[in-house]
Each structure stands twice: as C-alpha cells, then as structure tokens.
Design goal:
mainly alpha, Serine Threonine Protein Phosphatase 5, Tetratricopeptide repeat
Length: 196
C-alpha cells in the first residue's frame, strides 16, 4: 500500500517544493524557529551536513537570544543533538562531535571517546577543549595525549581539569553554571564557523 502512494509522487519534486517553501518562509520570517528547524531537517535528509548544521545553529541562536540564556530543549532536543553530531562527523570535525556528545542527557562516552581518538581531524582540536565540562572526557583526553606523547596538549587538558568550577565536589548549581557557560561558548564558536 505504501509503494502505491510513493509512486504517485516524485520525491525530488516534493523535496524541491518543500525547500522552496521553507526558503521563502525563512526569507520572510528569519527568526521563526520551526522554519529554521524544518530547513535543517530537510538539509540533513539531503545529506548536506554544513547547511544542516547552519540552520540548526541559527535556530539555537534565535531561541536563546545569541546564547544569552540556555537553548530550550524543544530546540536542542536529543534527536537534534544526534543529527548535529552526525553532521560534524561527516565533516571530519570530530572534536566538535565529541564536545556535542556532552550535551546529551546521558553523555555518550563511547562516541565521544571514539571521536576524540580520531587522528585525521578537520577542526581546531585543542581550541575546543575549553568547552569541555565533563571531567571524564577531560581525563580521557589527558590519557589520549599521554599515549600519543603530546605533552603540550596533555598539560593544557590537565590545567582545564584543575579549574575550580569543574570540581566534582561542587554543588549542582555551580556544576550547571559551569556547563552552561561552556555550552554557550561552544555554540557561539560553532555559529561563527557555520552560520557567519
């Protein structure tokens, strides 16, 4: 039955029509989050990771007033985060993907460690370390750089682990604030790269 309905429509035509509609909607209402999310989803489905990331980030930007407040979970949901991680991975921006793994409700350590271990990385690896707030990920990075004999990078990560606000004995409020500051810093950097 499904095959009957899909044969009546050209998927390319529907996609083109939807893209035209979304582009016009964004042109008329550039701060309308559902239009931006719809375009991001369409670009993701069309295997256009750069454009997809740009629209997801623009939706985050608009919803948080340029990250002056937290991005609502309705905009940066688990599904959207996983799509953004896949987009970064497709672009060989593995450090960005690893940092985004922290944004998930349950940190995806397996993926974060895998991405952090990639040698052929197309992003500024250690420039994003200041955006990491998860101590487990920072400890993994320390170990990784030790195994690779990358002394300078290892020292940089050790210095980050020593920051007072990342202390695991801090109360929840301080830990949440430290995470929020680093999330905003990271998302601003992503916007500069993909949406500027």
């Amino acid at each position: 039955m499904v095959a009957l309905y899909t044969s009546l429509f050209s998927l390319g035509s529907v996609s083109e029509c939807l893209q035209t509609l979304l582009a016009q909607g964004i042109r008329l209402y550039p701060a309308h989050i559902p239009w931006l999310q719809g375009m991001a989803d369409l670009r993701y489905a069309g295997h256009e990771p750069t454009s997809s990331l740009r629209h997801y980030l623009e939706a985050c930007l608009v919803s948080s007033e340029y990250f002056s407040r937290p991005v609502p979970r309705t905009v940066l949901s688990e599904a959207v985060l996983r799509r953004m991680i896949k987009c970064c991975s497709a672009l060989h921006c593995y450090t960005q993907a690893a940092v985004l793994c922290q944004f998930l409700d349950d940190v995806d350590y397996a993926s974060a460690f895998q991405y952090a271990s990639e040698r052929s990385c197309s992003d500024a690896m250690d420039a994003y370390y200041e955006c990491v707030w998860d101590v487990t990920l920072l400890e993994f990075l320390t170990s990784l750089h030790h195994r690779r004999a990358e002394r300078t990078k290892r020292q940089q990560v050790i210095k980050l682990i020593g920051q007072l606000e990342l202390n695991s004995n801090n109360n929840e409020e301080i830990q949440r604030e430290a995470a929020a500051v680093r999330k905003a810093r990271f998302l601003r950097a992503m916007v500069k790269q993909y949406a500027a």
